[in-house]
Structure formats: C-alpha cells, structure tokens
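User: Structure please.
Assistant: Input sequence and predicted structure:
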Amino acid sequence: MKILVINAGSSSLKYQLFDMESGKVLAKGVCEKIGLSGIITHKRPGAEPYKTEHPMPSHNEALALVLQLLTDEKLGVIASTDEIAAIGHRFAHGGKFDSSRVLDDEAIAYLESIVPLNPLHGPPALKGVAACKALMANKPQVGVFDTSFYSGFEKKVYMYPLPYEWYEKYGIRRYGFHGTSHRFVSREAAEWLGLDYENCKIISCHIGSGSSITAIKNGKAIDTTMGFTPQEGVPMGTRCGSIDPSIIPYMMKQTGMTPDEIDNVMNKQSGLLGLSGVSSDAREIWDAVEAGNERAKLSMEVLTYRIKKIIGSYAAALNGVDLIVFTAGLGEYDRDVRRMACEEMEYLGVEFDAEINATCPRGERTVLTKPNSRVKVVILPTDEEYMIAGDTYKLVK
C-alpha cells in the first residue's frame, strides 16, 4: 500500500510518498512560494534532486504539480495516482480528537470550527485537504493531530488558573503540540535501547526553531511545555516561550501596540533572535559567540538553562527518569546545546559523555551517556511523516 503524506503551510506544501510494505520513502519534496512565483523541489532515492520554478496560484495547483511529478515518465515513481491508497495530513491542532481519524465531512466541519484556536496552522492544513479532495476525490484522507498525544492529560495538567468560564466558553486550556514527533521518538528510542515502552519514564526534547519538551510515563504523555498555543514553554527561534503575562499589557501601554502587533513581537521578534540581536539560526549565533558577542552567548545560555529546568521538573513529575531523548534541528545537530543542557545533572543519574557528544556524527542516533549512567541520554532523529503514514495505513488498510 502506498500512502501520500501532506504537510501544508500557508505558502508551502511538503510531501512524502511511502511504500508501507517496505517502509521506504519513494519520493519527497516541497512546493514553496505558493501564491507567488512557485518553486518545487522533488527528490527520489539515488537520483539528483529536481528543482524548478512553476506557477502555483493556490494549493490546488501545487498538489497537481506534485501528482504530475510522482507519475512522470522520467521523474516519477508510480505509474498513476491509482497506486496511492490514501493521503495522511498533519494537523497541529485537533481540538477534541484524541487520536488520528478519517477526515469525513463531520471531521472537516469540526476542524474548520476550531480555526480560531489555531489560526496559523489550521487554514493551510484544511487547504491541503481541500486540494486532495478536488484532485483525488475517491481517496480516503486521514488527519493526524499533534494535540491528540496529550488527550489523556489529567485536568490538573491542562487547566490554567484563570476564570473557569474561560475554559468552558472559549476553550482556554493547555493543548500541547509536537505530539507526533514526541510519540515517534519516545517509542523508537525505547525499542532501540531494549526498554519496555509501557513501563518506563522518558523525557523527550524536541529542540529546533520551535521547541517543546514532553514527559512520557508508561507510554502516555503526562505533561508538555507548549500550552494553549505553541508559544508556551522554552525559548525558540523567534518565539519568547513562557514569560510573565503582565509584561504584555505593560508593554502595550508603554508602546501603544495593538494585540496583533504585540503578538507579532512575541512570535516573530523574540526568542533567540530577540535576545541575541543576531539571528534565529543557532549556527549564526554560535559564530557570533566565537566572535565575542555577549548577547549571542546569553541567548544560548537562556535557552539551555530553561531546557535544564524543565528536565528537572519533569523528572520530579515522573518520579524519576530512565531516558532523555534529543531530537529536531538543535537536538540532533547542536552539540553545544545538548552539552549545556545536560551537564551537571549527575544528581539525576545522568553521566553525560562530553567526548562522545562532541565527536558523534550529527543527526544520527547516538547514546550520549557513559556505560554506567543510570539515565540514558540519546540523539534520535524524528520522523513525523512516517508516523503520519503509519496512522493512515492502520485506519484505511
């Protein structure tokens, strides 16, 4: 069975085509600048990437181009779209949905109704579904929701100490995000190390341009750093993460900013970019650190200190920890971030091996602790698309 996975953004559309019998990716790529000039990059194993500009006024034209390339005589990997059994879509927010599900009319109507809770990621994901429905109407479509991994939270975990009516009337509560990534790496890491996933304690650190940390006990998420939106938690590339909420009305009064303007500052001008004044890209920040930039150094110290604090608090919530997993851009590739986050945690049972951390291949699964370490720390690359394909396969096979 072949499954097409779609991850639609406001001006982009990422895709991967999986052969579920072999578990292999047949092709993948991304359409960028949808609504503008349009660029597509199409990749197949063992072949040079194909990249070209092509008009893409909407997601419909972008998907049509993807299907054309997948079935092209020279660049394609399937004879026709008839070989695609189903399409899996990534949704950041699933609201009340506690698991992946087939996107029938009722499900789509509900996802449209919660767009106010998810104004950034919801509309483009729905556009991806609409494009697939227009071009492949007979194919089942499945939604895989980042928030569903957290649907089993206790109420004490997801409630904010705000007027209870806000929860009842407006849905103000902690939802959590990056759940598909945390679900994949926690299970994969446990199986890799021979741990019983249903009987162990894991802290999963998805650290990238967007970052979140999740506590997982006996296969179930019990807490996570992101909340009502992906803004809560540790500092990120351009997002501030958790701050004193009183800063917001204070700065609105001081500057005259509107709610939209201050929301833009917190989401697009803060985090590593705001602190360093250099970039949201950690590689450029570390270059500035080497050049003696104190603000750049401070930004990375703030990030790693917050990661360390969360790991400590989640160890308390879990009543111990067996495994700490680092994944995503910085988690997989940034040696200094991992080192700074994990040093001086011997009290927790972490015997971090700085030499292995400094010399191990970037982006490859690696154990970063010494053989006698009671708590294992590992790098494990995430694969959200494979998780989406797997859920889709189970629902439609």
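The first strand starts at residue 2 and ends at 8.
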